[in-house]
Design a protein that fits this description.
The structure is a homodimer. Chain A is of the alpha/beta class. Chain A contains eight helices and five strands, in the order βαβαααβαβααβα. The longest helix of chain A is centred in the C-terminal third of the chain and has 23 residues, at 145-167. The model of chain A has no long low-confidence stretch (mean pLDDT 92).
């Protein structure tokens, strides 16, 4: 049976790198921004638009009332809803094509009825997260550690808000995952080895 | 350097069995009730008393006020405090003697400054937890599934209350662990293999 690995991750925890190396090692397909590219091919939505709304920048659907007509509600599809719906379709299609690794985008929830290993990658060492961001930044993007920390926490708050809106589950709660790995304790390669061991068991 | 594995676990998740098999496989010492026995040897406290207060049945220290003398507080050592303090001393002593596995009793927190792998074992399948309890029960202990579920949840609530009182951390929150494994997805033997792989990395 096709095996699916979903990697949910805190920002700058090394989760994406773990997913990429894992896919290479296991010869699984790897789907991160590839989900966006796939949707862009099939729709008239731009990659920038899709990327913006793919797992953060949640746009909520507020009821519209006209004048004093309380209770008169027009259902409205928000940009987030539009992108989320496209993601469901594309992710299910891709997961049906063979063994694969998905990064984020509620993949643990969307693909929950498949033969899936749901992994959560996090790190309890903020200084290592900051270093990871710096290593990837361009020279002209360099900002203070304090500012970087704020941005890191903001990305996670956004992902959490998005995830919880569409799944009604708590982001980062062990109950939603099969395996949770703290990269403050394990390197990227070590985490890959642990997950590779675990995937042989499902 | 001595390696310590701390297994925190939801009740009936298979955590204790995982810890025992892991210790056997790695030839590590195994400390569960052994901690209690060790304290009983060195003190005048009974095993029953120690067991009762070892990781649940928290007794809180309420300030005592006499008459209208608000603010007059007598420090009081509760049974929980007494047992917890003994556990700290004995666990640190045992952990210093060589590679070992500890089950619960805030060992992740008490031994946090050692070379420790902090594991949390949980299960999202209540029916499997109930089956695990039934398999261990004596014939005359058999009770309904509903009653068993209530007891399972009660044990976890007690452990959570005890843990959070002494550590000021949230029991079952990924942040306090290095590796979290859902036994709804992995068997006891599979979990042992995953942890055995992880321990080679620390």
């Amino acid at each position: 049976m096709t095996k699916v690995i979903s990697i949910s991750r805190e920002f700058a925890s090394g989760g994406r790198e773990i997913g990429k190396k894992l896919a290479e090692r296991l010869s699984f397909a790897y789907y991160d921004k590839e989900v966006i590219n796939e949707i862009a091919k099939d729709t008239n939505l731009s990659k920038e638009y899709l990327d913006h709304y793919s797992e953060s920048n949640l746009t909520r659907n507020f009821p519209i009332t006209i004048g004093h007509s309380f209770g008169l509600v027009y259902p409205m599809i928000t940009p987030s809803d539009e992108v989320y719906k496209q993601q469901i379709d594309v992710m299910k299609k891709l997961a049906g094509e063979g063994d694969c690794v998905f990064i984020g985008r509620c993949s643990d929830y969307i693909l929950r009825n498949m033969n899936i290993l749901r992994v959560f990658i996090y790190s309890t060492k903020m200084e290592e997260k900051i270093d990871r961001c710096k290593a990837k930044a361009n020279v002209d993007e360099l900002i203070s550690d304090t500012e970087l920390k704020k941005r890191i926490l903001k990305v996670d708050r956004d992902r959490k808000e998005y995830y919880e809106y569409y799944t009604s589950l708590t982001w980062g709660d062990v109950k939603n995952y099969d395996l949770c790995i703290n990269t403050a304790r394990f390197s990227v390669d070590e985490a890959v080895e642990i997950i590779a061991k675990a995937i042989t068991k499902i």
